[in-house]
Design brief:
Blueprint: E1 22-26, E2 29-32, E3 37-40, H1 43-46, H2 55-65, H3 78-89, E4 95-99, H4 102-119, E5 130-134, H5 143-148, H6 154-157, E6 165-168, H7 173-177, E7 184-189, E8 192-193, E9 199-200, H8 203-215, E10 219-223, E11 247-250, E12 261-265, H9 285-298, H10 303-325, E13 330-333, E14 336-340, H11 346-354, E15 360-362, E16 364-367, E17 370-373, H12 381-397
Parallel strand pairs: 3-15, 5-6, 5-7, 7-10, 10-11
Antiparallel strand pairs: 1-2, 2-3, 4-12, 8-9, 11-12, 13-14, 14-17, 16-17
Helix pairs in contact: 2-9, 3-9, 10-12
The chain binds pyridoxal-5'-phosphate (PLP).
Residues 101-103, 106, 138-140, 190, 194-195, 223, 225-226, 251-252 line the site of pyridoxal-5'-phosphate.
């Protein structure tokens, strides 16, 4: 069907979209309304960790949908029990609350930290509620998570902000220390900043944060909505720096394409009392059944090693590309990587790669001088080669 035959005007224009409607997806590939195929390095924004429509996710949805859709969160259901146990058995956390989006999981983390700061008051007997977050961080689009985020312009966009978030600089421990007051209850960060352009927190910084927060009786919260679930080659990104955080949030990859997120905490931090946290769809059996299918794939012997191997391969290929075209190198962890362009040609590359014939390439440019790659964790080396070759062709066309 031609694009002009769709009436898209009933949708709120919340972003500028190309005149394409995607109709099918399998693995690393998407097909549009004209039947054109695209190699997809967005994967729903690092969501489809097993690619588009993986069989295990399709099977989990269909079999659970025919059994039980929604008994309500007032009752236990099997998939949510099983997924929570799988997550706690494979992490340092003891308790899980399921949510529908990364932002909602982060809201839960903020609430849990504030509750913990009420139980663990300061020396003057006052509640602690301030949370130190980071410039350029991204934690979601609710009012509190926008306030926790450090994106330029977000402080005034829907003013007034939710108070209590102080912004430090990533990888600068002194900038964190300076912000600590007797009201500070936690530090919250992405182990790899995603939206700001794939900026990893260093191992030393994560370890220094853990030591500092422990020493000052504060919580360490890791937002692993983008970097968790095998994306970095470890199941969870905090494992890269050998630390044990107090709270972690998951989203994106855990649902393999469906809305599922999670808030995890260690036992002594899990201080919510009945009535303080909830949500109509939390622990929904269809979504948590998908979570079980996804996590079970990631836990198969050799899977995470294959992510590390392909991450290293992609890094090497991107470095070669960078050298060939005089770019500024690359960075990232595992299969969350960025190519530094050195010039503001990102949006132009995204457009030209998408419009290539006979097949297109879908890329993301979170900043004009950078491309971000979020392939499925099941991407093949051939699909990495194909992406690099197509990108090289675009760069040549652009005169680089
Ligand atoms: C995407 C993202 C979020 C928000 O998740 P939503 O599901 O869009 O609400 C939060 N934190 C990080 C690090 C993210 O990448």
């Amino acid at each position: 069907m031609e694009f002009s035959q769709y009436d898209v005007n009933a949708l709120m224009q919340i972003t500028t979209r190309p005149n394409l409607v995607f109709t099918e997806g399998h693995g690393m590939w998407l097909t549009d309304n004209n039947g054109k195929r695209y190699l997809d390095y967005l994967q729903g924004w690092a969501v489809n960790c097993l690619g588009h429509s993986p069989q295990c996710v399709v099977d989990a949805i269909t079999s659970q949908a025919g059994k039980l859709l929604n008994p309500s969160p007032a009752f236990y259901n099997e998939p949510s029990i099983v997924l929570a146990s799988l997550l706690t058995a494979n992490s340092v956390f003891d308790r899980v609350f399921f949510a529908n989006s990364g932002a909602e999981a982060n809201e839960g983390a903020i609430k849990l930290a504030r509750k913990w700061g009420k139980v663990n008051k300061n020396a003057a007997g006052e509640n602690r509620y301030e949370i130190i977050t980071f410039n350029h961080a991204f934690h979601g689009r609710t009012l509190a998570t926008m306030s926790a985020s450090g994106k330029t312009g977000w402080d005034t966009m829907f003013a007034p902000q939710v108070p209590g978030f102080l912004k430090a600089e990533l990888n600068d421990i002194a900038s964190v220390e300076r912000l600590i007051t007797d009201k500070t209850v936690a530090v919250m960060l992405e182990p790899v900043q995603g939206e700001s352009g794939v900026i990893p927190a260093t191992r030393e910084f994560m370890q220094a944060l853990r030591a500092l927060t422990k020493q000052r009786n504060m919580l360490l919260i890791v937002d692993e909505v983008q970097a968790g679930m095998g994306r970095t080659g470890e199941l969870f990104a905090y494992q890269l720096s050998n630390i044990e955080p107090d709270i972690m949030t998951l989203g994106k990859g855990i649902g393999g394409g469906v809305p599922l997120a999670a808030l995890l905490a260690r036992e002594e931090i899990s201080v919510f009392e009945p009535g303080e946290q909830g949500g109509t769809y939390n622990g929904n059996p269809v979504m948590t059944a998908v979570g079980i299918a996804v996590l079970s794939e990631l836990l198969k012997p050799g899977f995470l090693q294959s992510v590390k191997d392909k991450g290293a391969y992609m890094r090497a290929e991107l470095l070669k590309l960078s050298e060939k075209h005089g770019l500024d190198g690359e960075r990232g962890e595992g299969l969350l990587r960025a190519l530094k362009l050195g010039k503001d040609i990102g949006p132009k590359i995204v457009e030209m790669a998408r419009d290539m014939e006979p097949v297109g390439l879908l890329l993301n440019s979170p900043r004009p001088d950078l491309l971000r790659f979020m392939p499925s964790l099941t991407v093949s080396k051939e699909e990495i080669d194909q992406m690099v070759n197509m990108l090289s062709e675009v760069l040549t066309k652009l005169g680089h």
